[in-house]
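Why do we care about 3D structure at all? Because function follows from shape, and shape follows, mostly, from sequence. That is the central idea of this module. The next example makes it concrete: a single protein chain, its amino acid sequence, and then its structure expressed as C-alpha cells.
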Amino acid sequence: CSPIASIEPGTHLLLDTDPAPEHLYLGDLVVYELPTGEVSYARISPPPASEPGTVRTGEGYWLLGDNPTCPVPDSRAHGTFPLEAIAARVLFPLRF
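And the structure:
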C-alpha cells in the first residue's frame, strides 16, 4: 500500500535528506515523521483557506497522501507539520 498513487510499493526513492525551506514547493513529495515516530511520505499541499500558491503557514506544511485506497495519517489527522518533521524531499523514484 502506498500513500501516493504514482509510487508503487517497492519503489526506491532518491532523497535529499537536508531539505531547506526555500527548496520545498507545492506538489513536492516528502518523507516526514509523525508525532508517534512513524515515518511516511506525502505531497506538500496548499493549507486549507490559504492564498493560492501558499506553501506553508507559520505553523508548518500541509502534507497529504493522494491514494484513497491507502489512507495515511497526514495533515487531515495531524494538522500542519513543522520543517523539523520533514526528513527528506524525494528527488526521483527509482524502479528496478
